[in-house]
Write a structure and sequence with these properties.
The protein is mainly β. The chain contains no helices and three strands.
């Protein structure tokens, strides 16, 4: 099930791979809804 909200993902400074779900109000204002550590495998980066 999806909330339909946008999300972004990437590596934190400590090396964890995170996903963040947020709500965007305008070009400069976002409200993080939730974030969590996501599993990652080498298959995610194969070209």
């Amino acid at each position: 099930m999806s909330s339909g909200r946008p999300c972004c993902w990437g590596f934190a400074r400590d090396g964890r791979f995170l996903i963040c779900v947020y709500e965007q109000f305008d070009d400069l204002t976002i409200l993080p809804i939730t974030e969590y550590e996501a599993p990652i495998s080498s298959e995610d980066f194969e070209s």
